[in-house]
Amino acid sequence: RVDLRLSRKFRLRQNSDIEPQFEIFNVFNRQNYDPTTYNASLASTRFGQPGRSAGLPYLPRQMQVGVRMTF
Q1: Sign of the CA dihedral with 41 first, then 44, 49, and 54 last
Q2: How far is CA 6 from CA 10, 15, 20, 49, 61, in A?
Q3: Measured between alpha carbons, how far apart are the two ends of the chain, in Å?
Q4: pLDDT tens digits, residue range 13-70?
Q5: What CA–CA distance (Å, rounded) separates 62 from 36?
Q6: Are 49 and 39 in contact (CB under 8 A)?
Q7: Most buried by CB count within 10 Å: which residue of 48, 53, 55, 71?
Q8: If DSSP codes are grouped into helix, strand and coil, which group holds residue 3?
Q9: β pairing state of 10-11 and 4-7
Q10: Distances (CA, A) of 19 to 25, 38, 41, 55
Q11: Which residue blocks in the chain are alpha helix, DSSP H?
Q12: How far apart (Å, rounded) are the C-alpha atoms in residues 12 and 3?
């Protein structure tokens, strides 16, 4: 999984800064399989195929925008 974060700090005054941020999670929008969920039963028709996981591996691409201000 590849994540990307872009940010830049701008000085507003002597003691305060503002930092806009843009983040993308799962940039290439690929399914990342959890190696612990593979079907290992030889009798199964899904032998060797990854199983579904409720965790992070199946989340699609997500983006978020934020602003941080320090003073």
Answers
A1: negative
A2: 14, 23, 8, 36, 16
A3: 35
A4: 899 999 999 999 989 988 777 667 777 778 888 787 776 666 655 678 899 999 999 9
A5: 24
A6: yes
A7: 53
A8: coil
A9: unpaired
A10: 19, 42, 51, 31
A11: none
A12: 29
Q: By C-alpha distance, which of 23, 21, 25 is closest to 2?
A: 25
3-class secondary structure, 35: helix
pTM of the prediction? Answer: 0.64
Q: Which residues of 27-66 are buried (b: 16+ CB within 10 A; e: fewer)?
A: eeeeeeeeeeeeeeeeeeeeeeebeeeeeebeeeeeeeee
3-state secondary structure of 36: helix
Question: Tokens representing 51?
Answer: 């199983």
Return the residue matching tokens 């290992």: 40
